[in-house]
Amino acid sequence: MSDPALPQGVLPNTISLVFGHPDASTLPADDLRAAAEAVLRSHPARAGLAYGAEQGTPALIDYLVHKLNREEGLGLAQLRRVYRARCEATLHALERHMPAGVTWTHPRGGFFIWITLPEGMSVNLLRQAARAQGVLFVPGTGFFANGGGERNLRLAFSFAPPDEIEHGVAILAQAIRGMAAQS
Asked: 111 with 158: CB under 8 angstroms?
């Protein structure tokens, strides 16, 4: 389904399609900016989807969100409500699905929840198993300057709507159970 307010070829459900388009590197910067602004104006709550579940938003999207908020009142209060609801959905899904021994943070803001796996479990093996099922996260190993993080993962709640969060957390929990059963 197309949106008449968007440039041709830009779908309203995710701005990442603008930057992930196979021909995006050949588009002039002004065209990319125009397409991104059109998506952000039409669907401001999707701004967090710009770069993907494993990374942060690129500088262009950060700039555009700031610009549109300043110039047009994008609605940071609206975005905060969206992210708060997604955080709460993630926390509730973790409570419902995670096996004993898995712990997590309870953030009061931000875009991520830190999860700690039980002793003896490898975040890298879990990442492979989860990725095979379509669930993405960032291993904690990249966030420890002096080594560590082998049992930690950063789970983004800003990327997906609550129904997808519920499904993704259930898959992640099942992958953890599967790994525990093999050890």
From this structure: yes
C-alpha to C-alpha distance for 66 and 64, rounded to whole angstroms: 5
Q: Is the pLDDT of residue 110 over 90?
A: no
Domain boundaries, the chain: 16-74, 77-182
Strand, coil or helix: what is 53? coil
Distance CA 176, CA 165 (A): 16
Residue 36 and residue 18 in contact, taking contact as beta carbons nearer than 8 Å: yes
Q: Tell which CATH architecture fits domain 77-182.
A: Alpha-Beta Complex (3.90)
What is the pTM (predicted TM-score) of this model? 0.64
Out of 54-58, 115-119, 148-152, least confident range: 54-58
Q: Report the DSSP pairing between strands 103-104 and 152-156.
A: unpaired
